[in-house]
Known about the structure:
29% strand; 2 domains; Alpha-Beta Plaits; Rossmann fold; alpha/beta; six-stranded mixed sheet
Amino acid sequence: MSGEIVLSVSQLGKSFKDKKIISDISFEVKKGEIMAILGPNGAGKSTTIRNIMGIMYPDEGSVTFAHYKSGSIPRHKIGYLPEERGLYKNVSIMDILMYFAELKDYPVAKAKKRALAYLSKFGLEGKEKTSIEELSKGMGQKVQFIASIIHEPELLILDEPFSGLDPVSQEVFKQEIKELANNGTAILLSSHQMNLVEELCDRLYMIHQGSKVVSGTLSEVKKEYANFKCTIHGDNEPALLEKIPNVLRIEQKGKQTILYLSAEMDIPKWVKQWPEGIQVEELSIDRTTLHEIFIQIATGTGTKEGVQDA
Ligand SMILES: Nc1ncnc2c1ncn2[C@@H]1O[C@H](COP(=O)(O)OP(=O)(O)OP(=O)(O)O)[C@@H](O)[C@H]1O
């Protein structure tokens, strides 16, 4: 990764009918980097992406692609998979892919070669003459994905690329996104599949109600929001559990208690600091997953400081 900044979003803000939808959204995506924009339904991810794509214009802030400012961005260097899927129905796969290549001023002969290679990679070999309307939803999504990368974009923006795909197809998309990044494409994606984000993305930017909550590499985010969790089985009173030090949050369900811990703990030392009388039939220590962090943030139970009952 060269570290060259491809996309820079600065203090983006957008309102609809006096209602602020996003505010002060700022991040960068570098060459060869995969960046995830995350957040619950309605958080403002697609609005952010649409403002970057010039589909709508921000009320505040700016978008810079390479050295180009908002008004002069060379759109043919960008690939985009919108959240709304849909391709012309009565056209063959190859015709639609060539249409997208031409729109982006990409040489047709080269595009044809790329199209055939991608169709075969995505299990659609020999289907180039098939009409779009004959395709299943997932197949259509594969064609739309190919359309977004046919012209070798420098920046690729994928709005929920994995939604509606079976696990095998998700894996194929995941590998392809990785390969594109390895070859230098800067990638910004939104997704609700936290396991895939965790496996794929170099950095993430999480928004809630239109504003940033947390951003950084996965390990930076994990450092900020409970690095470890300790699960105990045993009969324990909440008042006693609250005496355990360095606990950010406690969740109790019957005999099972989950303690979300501060980052970078010395676990053996910590266990020795427990108060007398804690019952332990079973104990396990794990890393908090991005899925859990997301739920904590989205439901407002992700306090960084202080102990809170679930
Ligand atoms: N054209 C519009 N006019 C009015 N409100 C809009 C418009 N587009 C989006 N919104 C509102 O903006 C908010 C953010 O929507 P957005 O689609 O950006 O969320 P999202 O994070 O992409 O959500 P999801 O995960 O559900 O796709 C929502 O409250 C939505 O109702």
